[in-house]
Structures are given as structure tokens and as C-alpha cells.
Amino acid sequence: MQFKHPEILYALLLLIIPIIVHLFQLQRFVKVPFTNVKILKTIEKQTRKSTQLKKWLVLCTRLLIFTCLIFAFSQPYLSNHSTEQNFNTTIYLDNSYSMQVKGESGELLKSTAQNIIKNITNFKGNSTLITNTKVLENLDSKNLKNELITLTYSPNKLDLNTVLLKIQNQNSKQSKSRQKNILISDFQQDNIPNDLDFSYIKSPLILVKPPLKNTTNIYIDSVFTEEKTFTETTINVMLKSTQNITENFPVSLYRDSKLLGKTTSKFINSTNAKVQFTIPHANNFNGRISILDNGLYFDNNFYFSISKPTKINVLSIGSSSLFLPRIYTKNEFNFTTTPLQNLNYNKLQNQHLIILNELESIPNELIVSLKTFTENGGSLVIIPSEKSVIPSYNLLFTAFNMGTVTSRIERKQKITTINYEHPLLNNVFEKRVKNFQYPTTTLQYKTRLKNNSSIVKTASNNPFISSFEIEKNASIYWFSSPLQTSITDFVQSPLVVPVFYTIAKNSLKATQLYYTIADNNEIYISTIIGKDPILKVSNTTKAEEFIPLQTSSQNEVTLKLQDQILQSGFYQIFNDNNVIKTIAFNYNKQESNLNYANLKGLTSNYKNVEITSSIEEVLNKINNQQKINWLFKWFLAFSVLFLLIEMLLLKYFKI
Q1: Which residues of 462-501 are buried (b: 16+ CB within 10 A; e: fewer)?
Q2: Checking DSSP bridges between strand 285-291 and strand 232-255, what pairing results, if any?
Q3: Could you tell me which of 590, 587, 592 has the C-alpha nearest to residue 518?
Q4: Are residues 58 and 185 in the same domain?
């Protein structure tokens, strides 16, 4: 038994006063002479004995009354801890979308939150609630209930080590408190790092994994497009299942809110299925793929956006060529050509592709500008002249760490080798041509190249076209021969169009169909803005609007999104009040793959870690450990009881 106010027990010393009064009778007896006192002496003996017994009983009851009262005011209690002991319960509740999976009482997150609300009424001290998005400290039972009631799903995920570090951080702030840590999650395997370490936590840690009712989930894994014809586009939809199934699932395609088509995906004892939709070419197409599945419902919709093609800016510096304007037509390209002496250097950074077309020498100021141009993501094509000054070209090669031009070879050579696996030609030819009329060249510059990849080679195994990949996905292409018709017939061959056309297309970053919601997203927008204007991002209803971090370079703006998009759907990018692009965001599909970790294997070496499936048992156990059994009511009751006994003694104990 413990006491909240033990100092009051010193009052027990005062009980000696009634004892002293009882032992030393202060009343003085007067003797009165009386005749025939023989009978009276006998009565006197009997009366004194009974009176003395009564006084002893009354004294005992009074002592017990005062003793019980003193004990009651000192507030005695039974507990494993003192009343001054502070408690802190840290609860991590995983609110990722995988917690939508069904348990015995519905969705795991909602049922778990309800169970906590029901069982925290008797919590002593404060609680800390950790979710995937925030940490809430010093919550009493009422505030904790309010937070749990308003808790929603989040696309953010935390790996288990990060959760443990957050818990340890809270424990260090509450070092004087008696601590309990509860970690509630479905424990997806993707959130378990290889270097998992529970030794961060010194206080007891309870892992709660609520029982699951169903672990089968069908979800849309990815969407990609391909051009079927010049007028139609094929949309490919990849579906996945967490388990092998043999079922058919309806799949619908919407443009905005309008239904365009329906089909059926077929799983034949597998985890993968594919469906296709065919749509006409559209400048702007905001599409949504929808399925019906009873597993997780957050991944039943998939958003994608096909944007209007952007015209590619191509600048040719040097000699004019007849074949380039025929390839770079006005409907797809903004093509310009200029002699070197008339070059406006200010316009270089606004280009996507620059072609150095048979310059005899390359001035240093142009090399510096081209270096900046490629650093900002631009692509460069270098075509030498019949009278190229080799040292001048080597300055350019050195600036880009491409190697050196060593010599000039004047003899007829056949161009015989095509690298069909190169990204530039990978999707150009439907099949490899065997009876190909290869072009020839009578002049070639021999090189010693570094970090290059050959696209086309001559019969002597010298590269005719080479590519160099440099920073920010910029590319440089080197033609080892001038392209004048008097030197080579390459411009009359079937290769010239796919090579130059694909080079230009690759110079513009491909527009992504969709983005995945993540902590940090970088989005590249092909547009030109001034120094002062800024781009804004808003969802299609304009209910949420924000200004992301952004950097402008050349004819491109890079947007950096940091935890600003938390819901899937379409988002518009504004320049002033003009929509310049619509982008689509989807949730991370790792949450859809219901692959769970083996907790017993992970925690077998840690004695302070406990595993359970019932949050009710955990909270009831904590409530019992924190419970205090107060005894002052019992002592008050006994004091009243002894008072009644004293009254009965005084009234009914006859002398």
C-alpha cells in the first residue's frame, strides 16, 4: 500500500492523547460514610469492573475512528507505481492506402481507429500519435480521439526504420516518463528495409498487425501508348493481381467524365493481364482507366494525359542544305538556318536542336555558348566541312570530352553497318533490311572518340555517325563526313530521314503520360516565361492551388513538387491565367501489392518487442498497468462504522 500524502500519517502520534487521558483519571472520588456498607461494597466492585471494560471499548473505537480518518486523508492506494509517475504512450498508426484492405471489422485503418477510441478512456498521462504525415505530441484522451476521428489516408509511406527513429525521438523527449510504444500497421514487405534495427527502442515495443480478411487485389499497374496508324493511337493497360486467378474483370476508358469504351481483362491462372483501347489522335486527351474490384479501392482508377505535341525548335548554323527543310516541316518544327557570320547568339538557348552544318572552323565564343546550351538539355549535331580546320574542331571535342579528330581520309568507302539496337534507330525499322543499297562517301575524318556509341559504320569499321550522351539527357551527334552530294550519297539514302527526324524528336523531352505521387517530383515543362512570371499548379476544380519551386532554363521550366500533391487526378499548370499543360498523377502502386513481412522472423532477436493482432488487448493491458486502486473510501467507511459502534456502546452497554 502506498500513500499520496504520507506526511499526514504523522498525525497518528496524536492518538497518544486519548490514551493518556484514559490512563490517568483526572476525576477525584469523594468518600461518603454510609451505614451497613457490606452490600454496597459488593455492588461497587461489580460496577467498577463493567465501567472499566466499557471505557476500554470506547477508547478502542475512538482510536480506530481517528486512525481511519488519518489514513483516509493521506489517500492510500494499491498500484505498481506512484501517483507522481508520468506515462507516455506513443502510437504509430499506418495510414497508407494499403490499410484500406478489409479486416474482420472493415477497413483496417478505420476499424483500428475505432478500437483505439473505445479503449483509451482510462489512459493515464499523455499520448503521442505518429502517422505517415505528421507527429502529434502531448495529446490527452479527448484530443487523441478527435485526431483519430479525422484521420484520413495518405499516399506517403514510411519504412520501418524511419518509424522507429521517430518513436525513439519521442521517447527521448519523455525520458522521465514510463513509456509504452505501439506500432500498428499491415507491415508491407516494401516498407521493411534490409538494415532493419529494433535496437533504437529501449522501452517496450508492441507490434500490432490486425488480422486480414482478404489479400486478393486487382489493380492497374501502368498505361502506355503506341501509334497504331497515322490517325489512331493504341492505349495499352497493364493489370495485375496479388494472387494467381482465373477471372474476367471489366475495364472502362473515360475521357474526362465521358465513357469512351469498355472491354474485359482476362486472367488465366496468372497475375497479369493486358487490355487495349484504340482512340483517334487527339491534341489533348485526359483519360481515366477504371475497374471494379472489391480489394483496395484507391487503385481502381488510373489517370493519364496525352498533351498537344510541341513544335521543336531546330537551328542550322553554316551552309544551307536542301534536305533539312524537307525533313523539318512547319507542322512539327520551327526550322531556321543562318550563316555563322549572321548568328544571333541570344537565340541559341531557345533551341531544342542545333546543327553545325559544315563549318570550316568553330569560334571559341560559339563553343562556350554550345556548352551552356547542352548543359541546359539541348542536343547538338556536328557535320564537318570539306575544308574543316581540325584544331578548331578539336577544341570543340575537348570542351565536351569527346576525344579528338586525328586525320582526314580521302578514299571511297561504303557505309555498311547499321546499329539497329541504338536508341536512335530502335523503333524506326519494322524489320532489319538485308538487301539494302548502302550509301558511300569519298571523304571521312578519322577520330579517336571517347564515351561514344556508333550508330552507322563504314566497311572499314570506322564510325560514320556517333552519339555522345552528356549531362541532363542532352545528346551530341557526330557525322565523320560532310553531307554534300559531291562527297556522299547519304542524303539520297533511306537512312537520312529517320536519322535526322529522330534526332530532332529526341531533342525534346518526351511528355510523360502520368506521374506517381511521391515526396519529390520534378516535372519539365517546355515553355518560355520571362523573369517575373511564375507557373501555378491547380487541380481541375481549382479547389487547391499552389506555387511550386521552379527554375527556368532555355525554353524549359522545371517544377519541383514537394509533398504538395496528395490526391490522384488531373492538375493544370497555369502561366498567368492560361493553361499551358495538364498533367496526371496516380498513387504509388507498391501499396497495391499486398505482400506482407514475417514479423516473427524480424523480431526473434529482440526481447523488448512483442507481436499481437489485437489492439484491444494491448490497450486493456496498458490501462490495467496504469490503474490506481484508491483505498481512502474504505477507510472513511470504516471510520463511520467505528463511530456507530461507539454510539451503540454508549447507548446500550449498561453499567
Answers
A1: bbbbbbbebeeebbbbbbbbbbbeebbbbbebebbeebbb
A2: antiparallel
A3: 587
A4: no
What is the chain's length? 655
- 223: nearest Cα among 315, 298, 289: 289
CATH of the domain at 469: 3.40.50.880
At residue 30 the predicted structure's pLDDT band, cuts being 50, 70 and 90, is low
Residue 332 belongs to a domain: yes
Measured CA to CA in angstroms, residue 329 lies from 319, 338, 343 at distances of 18, 17, 22
Residues 6+ apart with CB under 8 A from 86: 125, 174, 176, 177, 178
Q: Are strands 333-338 and 2-3 parallel, antiparallel or unpaired?
A: unpaired
Q: Are 281 and 302 in contact (CB under 8 A)?
A: no
Exposed e or buried b per residue across 639-653, where buried means at least 16 C-beta atoms within 10 angstroms of its C-beta: beebbebbeeeeeee
**415-458 pLDDT, tens digit each:** 888 888 887 877 666 666 665 678 899 999 999 988 888 998 88
- The grid coordinates listed for 63 are 482510536
Residue 450: inside a domain, yes or no? yes
CATH code for the domain in which residue 208 is found: 3.40.50.410
Q: Is residue 9 part of a domain?
A: yes
173-196 mean pLDDT: 83
Is residue 91 domain-shared with residue 76, that is, in the same domain?
no
Asked whether the beta carbons of 219 and 251 are under 8 A apart, the reply is no
In angstroms, rounded to a whole number, what is the distance separating the alpha carbons of residues 580 and 560?
17
**Helix/strand/coil for 172:** helix
Indicate if the pLDDT at residue 265 is higher than 80. Answer: yes
Residues 6+ apart with CB under 8 A from 492: 439, 485
The rounded distance, in Å, linking the Cα atoms of 144 and 405 is: 72
d(CA 324, CA 353): 13
Domain residues for the domain of 578 are: 515-589
What are 526-559's pLDDT values in tens digits?
777 766 778 889 887 667 788 888 887 766 788 8
pLDDT tens sequence across 223-236? 998 765 557 788 99
Q: Which DSSP helix (H) or strand (E) runs through 3?
A: strand 2-3
The predicted model scores a pTM of 0.68
Q: What is the pLDDT of residues 447-491, one digit of tens each?
A: 998 888 899 888 888 899 999 887 656 789 999 999 998 999 998
Written as nine digits, the cell of 50 is 463493567
Domain count, the chain: 4
